[in-house]
Amino acid sequence: MSREASRQVVERLRRARRELYRKLAEQVGTPEERTLVNRAADLLLAEEILQENEDRLDDADSTGRTGDKSDPARQGVPAPDWKSLYAAGNWDVVGEFSRLPRGGVVQDHRTGREVFMPEAAVRAEGVEHGDFVGAQEKGVTDRGGALYFFRVLQRRGLGHTSERVCLVAPLEHKGGCWGVYSEDEESFITVPDGDVMSLGLDEGDLVEVAYLAGDPSSAKLAWRYDPDDPFLEIRELRKVPKRDKKREGFPSQEAEPQDLLGKTVLVVGADSYKESFKRVFERRGATFSWESGFMVGKLLEGKVRRADIVVIVTEAMKHKMPDVEAICERLGRPYVYAPSRGASGALREVLERL
To answer: Among 198-202, 276-280, 293-297, which is the least confidently predicted range?
Structure first.
């Protein structure tokens, strides 16, 4: 599908969605209301998918462009010379590497085929998110899967664009769960029991736990470190977690002002970063409310009406943003903007506006 065809489809979806909103306004409180809401949500999702892919679409058949122009973090990164990359070896798969909490995926540029790159191979090759990697099948694993040899074909310096968050800490077992304590999150991040068993770990082992930004529930045990490694500073198991100390009467040295006490802050969007926004605003005393942004209509209006201020996450809203702005204007609620990872910036905007 060309860019122009994609835009035409998006415009038709948008017109259909607006027509549904008009019908929805006439069907409030009737059995038909829920059906219309679901149909509107489906149309919004379809628009979101098409618009996210639009920058990757190209009418040319072999230019090798990857849509980096749409990503400010990738501006200035040269387009890959795919012909040279394939010629660099007898590779079965050549493509961009995407970092996961544990390991990563190489997606072939020509076929779209994906090959998983184990964590050990990632570390051995020093691969970073966004690098171009070649994979060559060299055997079969004990479970019958393909075994690959990997090599970095082009380093692109895009590791900072990965959404992978990691921390190194001693493994702990508390409340029947395995995990590590995150100083930044001030919470105990759990990991699957299967990860602990597969790596043969014990409590106190120094491990790296990783997850996707804003989603600690996706945490995986990525690596076990050698305790004799002189470059690692090992933190002892905590006697009492920070939050427990506060409950037991230990004074907090960094108590934050409760300048949002009694205020309700509604965040629209930021599905993957909801917890970050929640933590930032609740620390300042606010009542946190959230909506994904797909249900733009009466359901969102109720939340806007109960809020003192609305935060619109721009990267998640895109074409839906005008609808949310219109609701805020109609109900007389102030609103501010924030990027998906801009919880701290959103807090500053809210404090200035209120």
So the answer is: 293-297
Per the structure, the complete domain to which residue 114 belongs is given by 79-161
Q: Does residue 84 lie within any of the structural domains?
A: yes
Q: Would you say how long the chain is, in residues?
A: 354
Candidates 337, 346, 334, 268; CA nearest to 300 is 268
176 and 231, same domain (yes or no): yes
Decide: 91 and 121 in contact? Cβ < 8 Å.
no
pTM of the shown model: 0.48
Mean pLDDT of the region 204-213: 89
